[in-house]
Amino acid sequence: MADKFDVIVIGAGPGGYVAAIRAAQLGLKTACVEKWIGKEGKVVHGGTCLNVGCIPSKALLEASHKYVEAKHEFDSLGIQTGDVSMDVAKMIGRKEQIVKNLTGGISGLFKANGVTAIDGTGKVVAKDKVEVTGLDGNATTYEASHIVIAAGSVPVEIPPTPMTDGIIVDSTGALEFQEVPKRLGVIGAGVIGLELGSVWNRLGSEVVVLEALDAFLPMADAAIAKEAQKLLKKQGLDIRLNARVTGSEVKGNEVVVKYEDGEGAQEITFDKLIVCVGRRPYTKGVVADGLGIELDQRGFIHVDDQCRTSVPGVYAIGDCVRGPMLAHKASEEGVMVADIIAGHKAQMNYDTIPSVIYTFPEVAWVGLSEQEAKARGIKVKTGSFPFAANGRAMANNATEGMAKIIADEETDRVLGLHILGMGAGEMIAQGVIAMEFGSSAEDLALTCFAHPTMSEAVHEAALAVDGHAIHMANRKKRK
Questions:
Q1: Is the pLDDT score of 189 beyond 80?
Q2: What domains can be seen in the chain, in order of their start residue?
Q3: Is 451 in the active site?
């Protein structure tokens, strides 16, 4: 038996590393187990988010957006640039450096907070024991009073499109292209598909997105989703709904994809194909058989509202449990669990977890959409305001999109905020904070927002809930 810890966390992604640091800050002897091997052949921390997810994709999105601005939009601002080109290898290199800085930063935080980093593959073998198989293949068993499973998730693969190195790739492979593919296929019009499709579309790829569902972004508010689809189509994304992929065949350096839509069987050829149809929990082999930890049919670990599993002392957080697969959700669960283990009272509000799609313009929302509220039988009133009428948006050359507030018709309580626009991912925090404090639409309407800012659209949307928007012709009778 090796060292004994108060807490052992399995996984150093945004859920695991945050849980480990928080536990250590609370005075608990903590270890964090990680097996992710980086490009330099050493274990790196940060999980999917920092290594091949949230952070690297945003680096490419930002670079590609600036390229589009310089190539097509600077002239309207009076900026003369001449010919503009993109050095893809340099863009990828910058992305790699950002990842290296951040993952190395987590290792530094572990040292600063006294977290013991254990390299290897962790497995819960008893309610108080974790077996770690090191990089050399040797297994060591550690004892812990509490165990936190934060093993994360992996991309879903589908039988019709088996991964083929360099041709058919998942989201990780799509971050590694060394040149712009002429014809790019994307399976899945979800968050990942739209973001990766946008990156390469901006750089010159002919992008076709195949989505099996017949509705675009059904998890977003319908009005926001409709406008987002229109804007992305205008940018060049060919989004084909109700398109179910049935097969693929790699022929040399291209792939022929077969799919079915409302008109029958179809066929299309791409140079590269990105498969991003979702993610599944990484729980296979993380828990020993017969331990009593319950998993559902999809592999998610069953937990209660405070992330306790069916085995006392063992918790699970992040992508391997119910709820949205979002880094910030995992991190907050990590903090909650660490606090509970340390004897504090802690609870997480799952009704106020924001979601963001980092296209341009960004799509962000928190709380209920109008269609969700109505489906629950809640009578609502709504207020919307377009960025086209916002002074800062005009100055920023970013007048596309709008802000929309959903409020309870009887209580005026804010039930949701939905934004399509530049900086939506930043502005959505206003809705999160408002909902956390039980704000009414009137509370937001009576709040002084700085001028000129994009956020004033949120203020005007709150005013519009009762027909009092200042900078828009009101369609509702004033009260």
A1: yes
A2: 4-155+280-348 (3.50.50.60), 168-277 (3.50.50.60), 352-464 (3.30.390.30)
A3: yes
